[in-house]
Design brief:
- By secondary structure, the protein is of the alpha/beta class.
- About 35% of the residues lie in helices and about 15% in strands.
- The chain contains 13 helices and 15 strands.
- Strand 8, helix 8 and strand 9 form a beta-alpha-beta unit.
Length: about 400
């Protein structure tokens, strides 16, 4: 299968360990280092910052860096470049887009979300509702009951396209269409979508979206996040977090806030240039990538992994949909000793991660993973479980990051 892989050549765009026994299946938590980043970072630090000093904002084009990175992300998520901003974190960006959505539906007080949504999304929504103190209800419901819960009392739904634990995927187009039919707005979290497979925000007629830069986009630990606002909404919204970079004339230093035209109004503080340099360089790994091929390989890798793991061991429960059409780019298995098993695998070089209470989670990034990697990983999982090698105290000692 590797011989026929049309994406095989893109693996060279990443710096992966030389050890063939290391298989990185945690790109859905932190992407690996793109090969283009170190040299670009050295240039930014030693030349642009070291020699140009503050002149780097103009001479090195730092001030335009967020927009350049946004344009690269826009292609991956099916959005116009001028509807995407790179800034802040996913949590801050969710606060901003949710506040904007509520301002567009002031008579409605309900926000629908998935009961299994990523917890920080729930925290942010609850915090905003308490801050506004206008009777808003953040209503988490079961995955299969979300559509039925959306009615004419709902201002917006707030959903992560791909569930971070199981990899189950919402139908973005159908769910957005249903919300619009009820007069509600659609907010999508693309943390486990962008860079893993093609997203079509424009085709789905999404209203708002957010996403992070450090997972499948490989922007580095704590990389800046991004947000999307449908162009039709931009003239109607004022940012809940108004900062000088979102001002119409940031260097006029006027005391009153006048929002910038377009998506720039959704930015706020000074952009983190060194992080943005790394992120912008990392996004070049997607140059020339056919996104349809990305999706095909993602599905093939996941299918191959499921079959190989189930053939190699017993005692694991598949938590991820078998149907590739409703699955993101990850596979999760349940096991009561999932944490220890994952730690034993990491000790052997097969790097996945664990999510409470019992999820062993493996992410599949099609640009650098090979089918040979997946075969090796499945063999190691089978051996760890058959031999019980996970049953050691060192593998059961919980680290701060799981």
């Amino acid at each position: 299968m590797d011989r026929n892989d049309v994406l095989a050549g893109f693996r060279a765009r990443f710096r992966l360990p030389d050890d063939e026994n290391v298989v990185y299946l945690d790109g859905n938590s932190l992407g690996p280092l793109p090969a283009s980043v170190p040299m670009r970072m050295r240039e930014a630090v030693e030349v642009e910052w070291g020699r140009s000093l503050v002149r780097g904002w103009n001479d090195a084009g730092w001030i335009d860096l967020p927009a350049r990175a946004a344009g690269k992300i826009a292609r991956l998520i099916g959005a116009p470049a001028d509807s995407v901003a790179v800034c802040d974190s996913t949590s801050v960006n969710l606060f901003k887009v949710l506040a904007a959505a509520l301002s567009l539906r002031p008579e409605r007080k309900v926000v629908i979300t998935d009961v299994a949504n990523f917890p920080t999304d729930l925290y942010v929504a609850d915090g905003l509702a308490r801050l506004l103190d206008r009777g808003y209800e953040i209503k988490p419901v079961q995955f299969d009951q979300i559509e039925a819960a959306i009615d004419d009392t709902v201002a917006a739904f707030m959903l992560t396209e791909v569930d971070y634990r199981t990899g189950r995927m919402h139908d973005m187009g159908a769910m957005t269409a249903h919300a619009h039919a009820c007069g509600a707005l659609a907010i999508w979290d693309l943390a486990h979508s962008a860079g893993a497979f093609p997203v079509d925000l424009t085709g789905a007629r999404a209203d708002f979206a957010i996403g992070c830069g450090y997972k499948y986009l490989n922007g580095g630990p704590g990389a800046p996040a991004f947000l999307f606002v449908a162009e039709k909404h931009l003239p109607e919204i004022a940012p809940a977090i108004a900062g000088w970079m979102g001002h119409l004339e940031p260097f006029a230093f006027s005391p009153g806030f006048v929002p910038a035209d377009g998506i720039a109004r959704m930015t706020s503080g000074t952009p983190p240039i060194l992080s943005l340099v790394a992120f912008d360089a990392a996004l070049d790994a997607f140059d020339g990538v056919d996104l349809a091929s990305l999706r095909v390989k993602s599905q093939q890798l996941c299918d191959y992994f499921i079959a190989a793991v189930e053939a190699n061991c017993e005692g694991l429960e598949l938590a991820t949909p078998r149907d590739a059409g409703v699955r993101g780019s990850q596979v999760s298995f349940r096991h009561p000793e999932g944490y220890a098993i994952v730690q034993a695998l990491i000790a052997r070089g097969v790097i996945g991660d664990f999510r409470a209470p019992d999820i062993m989670r493996f992410g599949f990034a099609p640009l650098y993973l090979r089918f040979a990697d997946i075969h090796h990983a499945a063999e190691q999982i089978g051996d760890v479980i058959k031999t019980g090698s996970w049953d050691e105290p060192r593998f059961k000692q919980k680290a701060k990051v799981t």
